[in-house]
Known about the structure:
Layout: H1 2-16, H2 47-52, E1 71-73, E2 80-82, E3 85-90, E4 102-109, E5 113-119, E6 123-129, E7 132-137, E8 143-148, E9 153-156, E10 161-166, E11 170-177, E12 188-190, H3 191-196, H4 200-207, E13 224-225, E14 248-249, E15 265-270, E16 282-288, E17 293-298, E18 304-310, E19 312-320, E20 323-330, E21 333-337, E22 342-347, E23 354-360, E24 368-369, H5 370-375, H6 379-386, H7 390-394, E25 403-404
Antiparallel strand pairs: 1-21, 2-3, 3-4, 4-11, 5-10, 5-12, 5-13, 6-9, 6-11, 7-8, 7-10, 9-14, 15-16, 16-23, 17-22, 17-24, 17-25, 18-21, 18-23, 19-20, 19-22
Amino acid sequence: MKLLKLSFVVLALPFAIANPVKNVDFAHGQPSDGKLKGGPILGGTNRAIDLQNPDNLGRQSTDGGRVKSLKWSFSEGKTNIYNGGWIREQVITDLPQSHDIAAVQLHLKKGALRELHWHTTAEWGYVYAGRMLISAVDEHGDYTVDTLKEGDIWYFPKGSAHTIQGLDDENEALVAFDNGDFDAFGTTFMVDDWIAHTPRDILAKNFGVDVSVFDDIPDKDPYIFNATTSTSPNSGPESGLTGPSAYIFHDSATMASVPIPGGGGHISIVDSGNFPISTTIAAAIITLKPGALRELHWHPNAEEWLYFHKGTAQATIFIGGGNSRTIDLVAGDVAVFPDNSGHYVLNTSPTEDLVWIELYKSERVADISLTQWLALTPPDIVASTLKISREVVDKLKKEKQLLLK
């Protein structure tokens, strides 16, 4: 019996004598300030995620209350692969706080088609790699066939029939929808799925052809499939999808040359003001220089949805009542800032630009600058409220400083 007890003691020793954890601080993926607060993680943890998200470990002492998760990564999603491309999506079940917007990364090889379809939602797309051929038809028989390059945007109103084809060897776009629950049944309708589930005699009568024409219709819609690049000119009548009715916006890339207050980068705003058809999704494409700050502000008209395309960032979101949360962001992340929540975005890289896209379920992009608000409020009121001197208040800029160096 004594020998048995001794064996248990010996077996337990390797678990009891653990190596001391070195470098116990936030920078090394540990919930500790390196002084008195916190301590090392001794149980199971994903070290790569901890290192990427030091603010989840309690780094910011100004965070308070309980704020639900406001970020998610496309890398965490299930990628669906097809003959000719792939998609990975973010919907409300992935990021429950994103009520207004859902999105997909869409990849198409040369000639590959996102098959003919339509939605119960509006669709907004931004090409960030390659070129894509867009074809769409509305309820009046007006149509568009256009080639989009990097930086170009499309918008299909709810119910518009459309398809997308890759033109370069590899092509990719961010595609967004004005409904966070986009994945629900009855949201997307594929043309071959419909035809496959319609009686053959009805199809023959509708199209004025023999029943045998539809013998090879796919039993299941392919979603994305390989095809040859379209070279057929459109032979329809003159279309009305031009000017204010155009589904395509070609100028977002050139807008980045416009000087921006604060000198910290560039913003391209694409909303119904310059893209009239886009009445339910407004966008801002932002490039922030290393170390620069998107100033403290909020949006009075909508929840903000963000896709981070390049770089690293930090943001603190204030939702009122002493509740705030700081999050760390990298390329491929999406985030949502609740309706009217106060926030900023900081480029945390000393060398690399931060590039992201903001989307709003609105006809316009609108923001209220904290600094401008304080500067345009009677200075004695501001000084009394914040317990700061009049001199400081008097120096606040009365114009928005959107992107600060």
